[in-house]
């Protein structure tokens, strides 16, 4: 635990933060197990020192970069974002990070780079969920964004939360935060970033394409086949107060991002 | 076999009424455990079951409902396979506990997750097949609980047995209800389904030949 020097920004100042215990003990990080408390229970010894990120694909600057290389020229800032999980719960989290665009620009993507593909570390020795014979996921976890989504000023690369270095269960040491998309797009513990021409295959879309689309934009009008997305449970909730609130289009960031999808049928491209 | 008959003799030496008390006490333990969780959460330990205590309790009651359904379904196989005749006396009570925990599960869902928003309940049940299957299983158990009295048994005659065979159907509905909620962790739903199918196979007289023969070797 270490306080990071981060500048404050105006993002989400009016929001009520979800408590630290909820943010750090209620996680979907299947690499450590499918239970919500598995990540906080089993990620304690996860080693993040000497972390490297492999940059490749359609860009001029390629190779392995240490976390220090990546962070050195960047200014960290705090951003309070709503996080809406595809499972119909949500939290408000004070992230610390930098706009992904600032990082990507340094690798000089070519004009052929249409998408960005991200990969989570694959290390079964440290990650019990990757060792599990009951897992249906084809490791490593992969996610992707369209180039314009990746370069959007709201898209954050996080290295901390609540004023400290990112806890292991929240995707240390480097994770994506895309606040207008369902949480599973915000890939954790990133070891590779590739610029690609074609839409990359992504983990949940591969697993159940009719339930999880590539775009995964928060949309109250398009239900998950097994549950409604019209409302969400803002956590923490109590036994007799479900804290159910209506879900907003693009998780409330419509004015910033709806231009990215003009003319697209969001029912088809869910 | 001698060990089993020794166990059987030991148990039957305990009066039936005592055995009923013991089974009632043991069956009530999960409910008491759940009750103390609710009390502690409501008296300040809001974080006891994480940020979604209602959901945790719905899962907990659901797990115990399935446990008791399987326990009740195990009674007849236990008698037929291991010759434990004494268990038959307790079948009705264990079935009623299965109904009770299923009702607690439905009540927890309606109270903690739906907050008794009836409009939501009807639309959710129609839209989500797993809710429909769960409701179906509960309805069957309700009918069986209502006709579990000796009087009902007598007045329904042959039809009573036919009606109570629906418990197999309820168990299958419960399995599919669980399976339909899989996202990636399939171990527990599949385990319960396998146990359900095993219990149903053992109970089916048509398959009796398999284990009756191996019994003699």
From TrEMBL, chain B:
Annotated InterPro entries: Fe3_Rdtase_TM_dom, MsrQ-like
Stored Pfam families: Ferric_reduct
GO cellular component: plasma membrane
One GO molecular-function entry: heme binding
Highest taxon of source: Bacteria
Subcellular location: Cell membrane; Membrane
Keyword annotations of the record: Cell membrane, Electron transport, Flavoprotein, FMN, Heme, Iron, Membrane, Metal-binding, Transmembrane, Transmembrane helix, Transport
Required cofactor names: FMN; heme b
Cofactor note: Binds 1 FMN per subunit.
Domain Ferric oxidoreductase per the UniProt entry, residue ranges: 61-174
Segments passing through the bilayer: 21-39, 59-82, 94-118, 130-151, 163-180, 186-203
Entry's family note: Belongs to the MsrQ family.
Subunit structure of this chain's protein: Heterodimer of a catalytic subunit (MsrP) and a heme-binding subunit (MsrQ).
PANTHER family in the cross-refs: PROTEIN-METHIONINE-SULFOXIDE REDUCTASE HEME-BINDING SUBUNIT MSRQ
HAMAP family named among the record's database cross-references: MsrQ
Function text: Part of the MsrPQ system that repairs oxidized periplasmic proteins containing methionine sulfoxide residues (Met-O), using respiratory chain electrons. Thus protects these proteins from oxidative-stress damage caused by reactive species of oxygen and chlorine generated by the host defense mechanisms. MsrPQ is essential for the maintenance of envelope integrity under bleach stress, rescuing a wide series of structurally unrelated periplasmic proteins from methionine oxidation.
Name this protein carries in UniProt: Protein-methionine-sulfoxide reductase heme-binding subunit MsrQ
Organism of origin: Thalassolituus oleivorans MIL-1
Taxonomy of the source species: Bacteria, Pseudomonadati, Pseudomonadota, Gammaproteobacteria, Oceanospirillales
Gene symbol of the encoding locus: msrQ
